[in-house]
Amino acid sequence: MLWLVLILAVVVGLFVGLLGGGGSILTVPLLAYVAGLPPEQAIAGSLFVVAVTSAVALLPHARRGAVQWRVGAVFGVSSMAGALLGGLVGARLPGALLMVLFAVMMVASAIGMIRGRKPVDPATAPTPLRQSLLQGLGIGVAVGTVGAGGGFMVVPALVLLAKLPMGRAVATSLMVIAMNSAAGLGGHLTGTSLDWSWVLPVTGAAVVGALVGAPLTHRVPQQALKKGFGWFVLVMGAFVLVREGLALLG
User: Fold this and answer.
1) Where exactly are the transmembrane stretches of this chain (predicted)?
2) What is the Cα–Cα distance from 103 to 80, expressed in whole angstroms?
3) What's the confidence (pLDDT) of residue 89?
4) Domain count within the chain
5) Rounded distance between C-alpha atoms, residue 144 and residue 91, angstroms
6) How many Å apart are CA 156 and CA 5, to the nearest integer?
7) Are 144 and 90 in contact (CB under 8 A)?
8) Tell me: the pLDDT tens digits for 100-140?
9) Most buried among 60, 93, 142, 202, by the most CB within 10 A?
10) Burial level of 173, CB count in 10 A (0-12/13-18/19+)?
11) How does pLDDT run across 31-84, given as a tens digit for each residue?
12) What's the helix, strand, coil split of the chain in %, to 5?
């Protein structure tokens, strides 16, 4: 079982490095259903794994000069505030309800990935700072509460926020996701603890995947990969929603 979890964790890290997201969407089910952790520990563990993995995946992008530090800092600080608040709320919700909310986030993220988004007109003015801060706050609340959804909301937000090209948005999103996840984890740790016997090996395996995936960002067709990944996440989300919804009702 441990080897299966580690192999899947490498896949998680690979998607984090390639897409600037997807880690939490896969890590929570991995820890909850394959490793067998309670929902509260699975979500907290996912936030730790994604925080570390995103920070490591950020390094190759930073060496290439692809990270927009100022944009990431502005967006990340507001997201951290929301993530801490979300983590404090999530730490006090029943595990079954957390998993239902997580599944809803999975389905919403999957639909967004499958539909894609319209190209941004470079002539359009950047998003006003106040609106950007509110977007960051809202994304942070979602990430902190259920431990999922950050990457595939942060990348589009950065494209609209500062008109970043896709490669730079993916790189900068890793900075924001690391900040979000760390803040959300702080909130969740007020109500649960981390099972280090699972979290540390999964983190190590995910880091390996992220280091492999990050340099390949510009060599892989992002839209095709994201759409295929979206269909997989949609199926997974529907499964989690049905399973946890029945448990919540029962």
Assistant:
1) 6-35, 42-61, 67-89, 96-114, 134-162, 169-190, 196-217, 229-249
2) 22
3) 92
4) 1
5) 9
6) 30
7) yes
8) 998 888 888 888 778 866 655 555 666 676 777 788 888 88
9) 202
10) buried
11) 999 999 999 999 999 999 988 988 888 888 898 898 999 888 888 888 899 999
12) 80, 0, 20
Confirm whether pTM is higher than 0.85. yes
Element spanning 153, H or E: helix 151-162
Spatial separation of the C-alpha atoms in residues 70 and 85, rounded to whole Å: 23
Q: What gap in Å lies between CA 172 and CA 20, rounded to an integer?
A: 8
CA distances to 58, 83, 102, 120, 139 from 53, rounded to whole Å, are 8, 18, 20, 29, 19
d(CA 18, CA 126): 26
Element housing 56 (H / E): helix 39-63
Q: Which domain range does residue 151 map to?
A: 2-249
Please tell me the distance from the alpha carbon of residue 130 to that of residue 245, in angstroms, as a whole number. Answer: 37
Q: How buried is 124 (Cβ within 10 angstroms: 0-12 exposed, 13-18 middle, 19+ buried)?
A: exposed
Strands of the chain, DSSP E? none
